[in-house]
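Q: Given only this backbone (241 positions), what sequence would you predict?
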C-alpha cells in the first residue's frame, strides 16, 4: 500500500480494540504515514484524555467480540460504539481538513443477518432514513430479555423463531451478525445526527485471519484462505484520509 500524503493525515486518531488483529494493523499503518501522527488507544477517564490532547480528528470503533453471552456481544459490538461516539464527539476537531471522521468496523455477517430475517425484521433493518436510536435500543432490549430466559445466549434457531432475526451460518455466536446489522443501522442514525459536520461510515474489512473466531475449528481451516489483518486496513485508511 502506498503511503498517504502526510499533509492530509489527521494528527490524532482514537482506535478501540487496538491490542490485536485489525486494530493493531490500523495503528501500525497510521503511524507509518507521518512522524506527527498521534494514536489514542484507551483512557479510563475522559478528564485524563482531555489532559493528553485537545482535539481528535477521527474515531475508529474496531473493538468487537464474536463469542459470549448475547447481552455481552450486543453490549460490545452495538452499544459500545454508541458510548464511544457519545463520549468523544466533543473532542472532534470540527475545523479538521476534510471534516473529522468516524469509522465503524462492521462485518459481512450484517447483510446476511438482514437477508435471512423475516419480512418484518428486514423492513426494520432497511429503515435507514427513519431509524432512531430508540428503535435500535428497543431491539437490543427485546433480544436481551429473551436470551436471559435461555441462560445467556440464543441459538441461531431460537433467534429466528422468537424474533424473526436471521443469523450468519458457520462459526460465531447467534448474536454476532445481529450486533453488526444493528451497528450498521446505528451508523445511519449517527450520520443523520452529525449532519454535514462529521463524515460517518461503516464497512466490512472482509474475511480477516484474526482470533475473533478462534474458538471454531472451522475458522482454523478458513484462516488459511483469509486475508491478513494488514490487508484489512485498506478501506479504513481510505475512509480516514
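A: Predicted residues:
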Amino acid at each position: 500500500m502506498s503511503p498517504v500524503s502526510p499533509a492530509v493525515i489527521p494528527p490524532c486518531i482514537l482506535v478501540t480494540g487496538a491490542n490485536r488483529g485489525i486494530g493493531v494493523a490500523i495503528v501500525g499503518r497510521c503511524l507509518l504515514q507521518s512522524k506527527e501522527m498521534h494514536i489514542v488507544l484507551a483512557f479510563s477517564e475522559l478528564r485524563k484524555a482531555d489532559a493528553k490532547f485537545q482535539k481528535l480528528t477521527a474515531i475508529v470503533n474496531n473493538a468487537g467480540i464474536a463469542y459470549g453471552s448475547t447481552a455481552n456481544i450486543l453490549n460490545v459490538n452495538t452499544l459500545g460504539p454508541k458510548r464511544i461516539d457519545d463520549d468523544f464527539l466533543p473532542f472532534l476537531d470540527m475545523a479538521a481538513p476534510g471534516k473529522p471522521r468516524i469509522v465503524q468496523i462492521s462485518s459481512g455477517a450484517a447483510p446476511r443477518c438482514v437477508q435471512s430475517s423475516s419480512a418484518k425484521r428486514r423492513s426494520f433493518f432497511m429503515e435507514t432514513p427513519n431509524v432512531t436510536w430508540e428503535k435500535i435500543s428497543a431491539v437490543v432490549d427485546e433480544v436481551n430479555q429473551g436470551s436471559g430466559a435461555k441462560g445467556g445466549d440464543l441459538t441461531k434457531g431460537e433467534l429466528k423463531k422468537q424474533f424473526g432475526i436471521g443469523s450468519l451460518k458457520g462459526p460465531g455466536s447467534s448474536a454476532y451478525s445481529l450486533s453488526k446489522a444493528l451497528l450498521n443501522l446505528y451508523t445511519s442514525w449517527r450520520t443523520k445526527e452529525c449532519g454535514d459536520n462529521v463524515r460517518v461510515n461503516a464497512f466490512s474489512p472482509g474475511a480477516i485471519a484474526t482470533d475473533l473466531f478462534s474458538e471454531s475449528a472451522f475458522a482454523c481451516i478458513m484462516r488459511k484462505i483469509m486475508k491478513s489483518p494488514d490487508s484489512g486496513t485498506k478501506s479504513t485508511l481510505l475512509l480516514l484520509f
